[in-house]
Amino acid sequence: MLMQELGAEVIKVEMPLRGDDARYFGPFKNGKSAYFMSVNRGKKSISLNLKSPKGKAILLKLAEKADVITENFRPGTMEKLGLSYDEIKKVNPQIIYASTSGFGQTGPDSKKPAYDMLVQAMSGMMSITGWQDKPPTRVGVSIGDLGAGLYTIIGIISALYSRAITGKGQRVDVAMLDCQLSLLENAIVRHDVNGESPKPGGNQHPTITPFQVFRTKDSYMAISVGNNAMWQNFCKLLKREDLLENPDFADNMKRTENRDKLLPQFEEILEKQNLAYWEKLFDQAKLPYSPVNSIGEAMQHPQVAARNMIVETTDSITGKMKMAGNPIKMTNIPEEKTRVAPPEIGQHNKEIYGTVLGFSESEIKALEAEGVI
Fold first, then answer.
1. What is the pLDDT of residue 174?
2. Structural domain contains residue 155
3. pLDDT band at 97, cuts 50/70/90?
4. Is residue 191 among the annotated active site residues?
5. For residue 129, what pLDDT is reported?
6. Measuring CA to CA, how many Å separate 319 from each of 207, 309, 340?
7. Residue 86: which CATH number?
8. Burial of 40 by CB count in 10 Å (0-12 exposed, 13-18 middle, 19+ buried)?
9. Tally of structural domains, the chain
10. Are residues 231 and 363 in the same domain?
11. Mean per-residue pLDDT over the chain, rounded
12. Which of 340, 345, 321, 337 is nearest to 27 (CA)?
């Protein structure tokens, strides 16, 4: 989806009649997957049975013309289909072939099935999320899936740039588990330094204090005091200049070491006034903070609107749908407030098979009748 947002023509290859599994994931609007719509807008769809010899031959023809192939089957599946990187590069040596899987193309677990929650658990991500007196907690979004997708894009773009210089294509191998480990950069070095596995810290930052969510009289607010200058302004704002003289809180390391003595004092003060009261003071002091917004509140935020981060698509079944916009702003990509609706299964068969591959209408109808497309 992001590659399409950045200008790529993306052709989604789906099983005839059934399509992508994500078409059956909720939430649903008028019986149609809103989730599928949000991540497949603007793509084209062809239906193609890759288990059919004719289907394999058609994919090889498409690969001759493609810049990139990306797939997320379990390792070994594309090889069984006769569509491995080695086979594809025979017809297109410059192809960028990106494989995203749970555990990568190598290693003892490479062929195991994987889902987002499994790699969150295996990587240790869940062990540092939540509170110490509660069970391990899944991150509130599918960070295992999303992280792997983003890293795959980085790999694809890097491979395309390398090809522009060298003329050579290559394989991109991205594992969900690897990506989770990469995102745990702070936790891993903390373990290396301390020799102990980090524990969940709730809403607190592990190494900066005060840097967490606090309760106000009527709501919650996140406060981030990232350096000593901010610390001084923060104490002045709360009229606790006395803390500046306390050696237990002289620098960030000391404040973090003694947070159990420090934080209750702030909690007591902040709970006495409403959020709006503190927002005004924090704005005046230019201290970093944010109310803890609901998703609905975030979608209505003026900064979100200014950045065109909520866009709209219109579908014949669901009507108008709101979804997240493109976070990568580029001068050559205009900011549009609408998006092309996601495709139906095989919606672009005639365009791709006819215009791109040169199949006649009768040939396309024959392939449909045989269940190839």
1. 98
2. yes
3. very high
4. no
5. 96
6. 47, 20, 13
7. 3.40.50.10540
8. buried
9. 2
10. no
11. 97
12. 321
What crossing angle do the helices spanning 116-123 and 143-166 adopt, rounded to 10°? 90
Averaged pLDDT for residues 13-26: 96
144 CB-side CA count, 13 A: 21
What is the C-alpha to C-alpha distance for residues 58 and 64, in angstroms, rounded to an integer? 10
Active-site position among 191, 205, 301, 348: 205
DSSP class per residue in 149-199 = HHHHHHHHHHHHHHHHHH---EEEEEEHHHHHHHHTHHHHHHHHHHSS---
SS3 71: strand
231, 265, 292 — which closes off a domain?
Answer: 292
The range of the structural domain enclosing residue 260 comes to 211-292
Domain shared by 261 and 230, yes or no: yes
Question: Angle between the 116-123 and 176-183 helix axes, to the nearest 10 degrees?
Answer: 50
If asked whether residues 70 and 127 sit together in one domain, one would say yes
346, 229: one domain: no
Asked if the structure places residue 89 within a domain, the reply is yes
**Tokens encoding 253:** 């390391």
CA–CA distance, 211 with 287 (Å, rounded to integer) = 12
154 in the same domain as 34 = yes
* 6 and 124 co-located in one domain: yes
Q: How many residues does the chain have?
A: 373
Closest CA to 231 of 212, 207, 255, 213: 255
At 290, is the pLDDT very low, low, confident or very high (cuts 50, 70, 90)?
Answer: very high
Quote the tokens at residue 322.
């709101």
Q: Which residue type, as a one-letter code, is found at position 300?
A: Q
Looking at the fold, whether 48 and 178 belong to one and the same domain comes out as yes
